[in-house]
Design goal:
Layout (H helix, E strand, L loop, with lengths): L3 E6 L6 H15 L4 E5 L5 H11 L8 H25 L3 E5 L2 H11 L4 H12 L6 E6 L2 H11 L13 H17 L4 E5 L4 H16 L6
Parallel strand pairs: 1-3, 1-4, 2-3, 4-5
EC number: 2.7.4.9
GO molecular function, one term: dTMP kinase activity
Organism: Lacticaseibacillus baoqingensis
Length: 215
Amino acid sequence: MVGKFISFEGPDGAGKTSVLQALLPQLQAHAQQAVVLTREPGGARISEKIRELILDPQNTEMDARTEALLYAASRRQHLVEKILPALAKGAIVVCDRFVDSSVAYQGAGRQIGEDAVLAMNQFATAGVQPALTIYLDVPAAVGLARIQAHRQATQYDRLDRERLDFHERVRAAYLRLAQQQPQRIVTIDATQALSAVVAECLGVIQQTLGAQWQA
């Protein structure tokens, strides 16, 4: 891979969307390569179709393992269709969620096993992982309160509607991953003001890009 692969992770309500929207213009201004912003589940046509299935609040009968397999399938298609070609062209790919999300949400949140979900996704990705993962950390109760304050009832997806204990398991899994892989995962306190979070993220990315960053 010639380019650089960066992922953003965080529990629901961590503010990833707002942070990425604020970061993108600065990345485009300073990075020497093209910057590609994408998301999971989704990011490619087939992957977006799978996203609709996964997040549809009407799909209440969806089995936890079915959900995990759908995420992995969406990820595989996204990887081969969008991420890998962009990296091969030398782009900086910034992805809103990747494998860590499945480990946290399906492995821990759904309680089907973090190791099992990781193995499934290693098969789906052939072991591809980001060079840098920025984890935006926020307590589960704070994240859910943010969601409730900023979304209409019709905007809630299946995961937003889970109980607090589900989201607490998700956060705990993220913190474990960050502790286990400090060389890849950088934790940032997302309870800070947006400007402070964006500034920290920018500093971490600048460090990672090194000579590929231009002042």
